[in-house]
Design a protein that fits this description.
37 strands, 4-stranded antiparallel β-sheet, single chain, mainly beta, about 0% helix
Length: about 450
């Protein structure tokens, strides 16, 4: 497993097959307020519902996959590295397609898709050809009401597995060749409405953060299922009994523990993990009144100060907004700033769409477009590393103006021994780039001043 340290000192991250999450951070000056350019819209098809980020055609530029319901189809938008996108292939698999997740299911270094058919209670597997196109590899039955899907190696065999909510929840163990074993229940008595994956207790085993449909009478309560490393999970650890719709995780107070944020009717509920050794509980949470029509949420540092912030898709009016609430680094957040987007946003993803190492926003709205907002906040006080993972390796890049800095790595933060990363940096435009090989152990990276 890999980690990444950004800035002159540390910003660590853990990488799972499904993506990247922030784990611990250092301070930086950053921008005092979030700032984004006016949205640019790219056609996606009528009524887009779900949105995911991937790299589908081998050019190392972030691409987007969108599922729509009128008609029901899968649309690909290929990134141009400058914040714009061009139309890619369209795939149709029948009516009822909704959630989508990205992973490498056959181990060939090309990103594949898992797409849930809500009405038919199936998950379809589309294997990537590496040129932006996909081939249908079959489908698998899952429980009723499946409305999301997450990817991780849940049983420790180095292969991507799938977890799908609905009924008692479904676990599909990957065979590593693009096929999966038949679904088994995630956890008896727990009916997840939605899922997120993270290593909550720091044991390097993926856990599930869930919104459950029924658990001792609590409809829509949020909690955690700790992974055992064999594809099974422990008892539900309830974090909030209030009605929640979706969850996200990140280290919100800089203590190297994953915390939880849940969208609720009145806003966002934030709960910090206890942090005590051998204690997997969460402290009492706080509700932030960010509105009553929040559709999606992401956690990322949007103003470059090294503190996680919240981005929220808000559908409270006919003209929707994306809201960004800056974090204070202690688990609390400031009032949210709003940015107009076309239509009502249903889904939100974060990625570096123009290669400047700042996180940008993409939202799918009911107007049949994906709106992209480029981040205008660029910190000049630190050398920020950008990171992109695929099966060929982990690409790390930083501004060429920091060309005299040295990229180093270590496998431990408790007693680190920083060693230079082998290989010379390659100049790519105005950035320097190093591709590090994938390793089974956890590693951390940093840029060191000469």
């Amino acid at each position: 497993m890999r980690g990444c340290c950004l800035g002159p000192l540390l910003l660590a991250a853990l990488i799972f097959p499904g993506g990247l999450r922030l784990n611990s951070q250092t301070s930086a000056t950053g921008c005092s307020t979030p700032s984004f350019a006016a949205p640019h819209s790219f056609a996606s098809g009528a009524l887009p519902q779900f949105l995911a980020l991937g790299e589908f055609n081998g050019d190392r530029a972030p691409d987007l996959v969108i599922t729509t319901i009128a008609p029901s189809r899968i649309a690909i938008l290929l990134g141009n590295r400058d914040g714009t996108f061009r139309a890619g292939p369209v795939h149709q698999l029948g009516e009822g397609l909704q959630p989508v997740a990205v992973g490498d299911f056959d181990g060939n270094g090309k990103m594949d898709l898992a797409v849930v058919n809500y009405g038919a209670s199936k998950v379809y597997i589309l294997l990537g050809n590496g040129d932006g196109t996909f081939q249908n590899s079959g489908s698998y039955a899952v429980g009723r009401g499946a409305n999301s899907v997450v990817v991780a190696d849940f049983n420790g065999d180095g292969r991507s597995d799938l977890a799908v909510p609905g009924s008692d929840g479904s676990m599909l163990i990957g065979n590593g060749d693009g096929t999966f074993q038949n679904a088994v229940n995630l956890r008896a008595g727990v009916a997840p409405l939605s899922l997120a994956v993270d290593d909550i207790n720091g044991d390097h085993i993926p856990d599930l953060v869930v919104v459950v449909n029924s658990d001792s009478g609590f409809l829509g309560s949020a909690g955690v299922l700790l992974g055992k490393g064999d594809g099974t999970f422990g008892e539900l650890i309830r974090v909030t009994s209030s009605l929640s719709s979706s969850v996200a995780t990140g280290d919100l107070n800089g203590d190297s523990n994953s915390d939880l944020a849940a969208i609720q009717k009145q806003g966002v509920f934030v709960a910090l993990r206890n942090g005590a050794k051998d204690d997997d509980s969460f402290l009492d949470g706080r509700l932030y009144d960010f509105g009553q029509a929040l559709q999606a949420m992401s956690i990322k540092d949007f103003n470059g100060d090294g503190k996680p912030d919240l981005a929220l898709a808000n559908a409270s009016s006919s003209d929707g907004t994306v809201m960004v609430a800056l974090g204070n680094g202690d688990g609390t957040f400031r009032d949210a700033a709003s940015f107009a987007v076309p239509g009502i946003p249903y889904a939100l993803v974060v990625g570096d769409f123009n290669g400047d190492a700042s996180p940008d926003l993409a939202m799918a709205s009911n107007t049949g477009v994906v709106a992209v907002l480029l981040n205008l906040c660029t910190s000049t006080t630190q050398a920020r590393l950008a990171i992109l993972q695929d099966n060929a390796g982990i690409t790390l890049s930083w501004p060429a103006s920091f060309g005299n800095y040295v990229l180093k790595s270590t496998s431990s933060l408790s007693s680190p021994t920083w060693q230079p990363v082998p290989g010379a940096a390659i100049t790519r435009g105005d950035r320097l780039q190093v591709i590090a090989p994938i390793s089974s152990r956890q590693e951390y990276f940093r840029l060191s001043e000469p």
